[in-house]
DNA sequence: GCCAACGTTGGC
DNA sequence: GCCAACGTTGGC
């Protein structure tokens, strides 16, 4: 069963244009440090799943691209590196606490589908992104919401 | 197990 | 910069 996702990143640290310029448009989606998001990556994400690239913490928050999950989940190496911003001393190669997947950019959207615009559609009222206080950096999107959002572009 | 303090996220 | 809404930590 193929799932759909929304994955957040602050474009000041990693944007859809950064992913566009990577070899094979592919990059490890590292730095997830939330157990709920980790569990989704570990238990639900599968290669071939599709995900929205969401820009957060910026002037124009919204969906900027479509990605494909390009690997199974595997340990996040940035958790092992003491010099890395996302270092976690409680994660080790023997017992990794944090996981990631590789993502590949399928396409950059012609325009950002903004958060403001998403909020304006009653069809999207159940979208987890729009629920109060939701700060998950990786969250599921239903097939219906996925198609509806793509139709907005 | 409870809960206050603290840190983070992220929109505005 | 502000603040709401979380999640985490640690004392008890």
Give a written overview of the molecule.
The chain is an alpha+beta fold. It has a single domain, classed as ph1033 like domains (ph1033 like fold), CATH 3.10.590.10. 20% of the residues lie in helices and 29% in strands. The protein has four helices and eight strands, in the order βαβαβββββαβα. It has helices at 16-21, 35-43, 115-119, 143-152; strands at 4-9, 26-28, 50-55, 62-69, 74-75, 99-100, 102-114, 138-141. It has a six-stranded mixed sheet with strand order 2-7-4-3-1-8. Strands 5-6 form a two-stranded antiparallel ribbon. It starts with a strand and ends with a helix. The relative contact order is 0.23. It binds a DNA duplex (12 and 12 nucleotides) through residues 8, 10, 34-36, 56-58, 61, 115, 132-135, 137.
List the topology elements.
Layout: E1 4-9, H1 16-21, E2 26-28, H2 35-43, E3 50-55, E4 62-69, E5 74-75, E6 99-100, E7 102-114, H3 115-119, E8 138-141, H4 143-152
Parallel strand pairs: 1-3
Antiparallel strand pairs: 1-8, 2-7, 3-4, 4-7, 5-6
The protein binds a DNA duplex (12 and 12 nucleotides) through residues 8, 10, 34-36, 56-58, 61, 115, 132-135, 137.
């Amino acid at each position: 069963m193929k799932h759909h996702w929304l994955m957040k990143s602050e474009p000041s640290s990693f944007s859809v244009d950064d992913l566009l310029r990577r070899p094979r448009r592919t990059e490890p989606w590292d730095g997830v440090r939330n157990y709920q998001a980790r569990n989704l990556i570990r238990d639900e994400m599968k290669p071939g799943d599709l995900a929205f690239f969401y820009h957060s913490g910026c002037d124009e928050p919204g969906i900027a691209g479509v990605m494909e999950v390009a690997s199974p989940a595997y340990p996040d190496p940035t958790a092992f590196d003491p010099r890395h911003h996302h270092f976690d001393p409680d994660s080790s190669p023997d017992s990794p606490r944090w996981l990631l997947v590789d993502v590949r950019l399928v396409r950059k959207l012609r325009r950002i589908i903004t958060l403001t615009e998403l909020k304006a559609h009653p069809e999207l009222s159940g979208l987890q992104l729009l629920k109060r206080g939701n700060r998950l950096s990786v969250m599921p999107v239903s097939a219906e919401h996925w198609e509806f959002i793509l139709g907005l572009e």
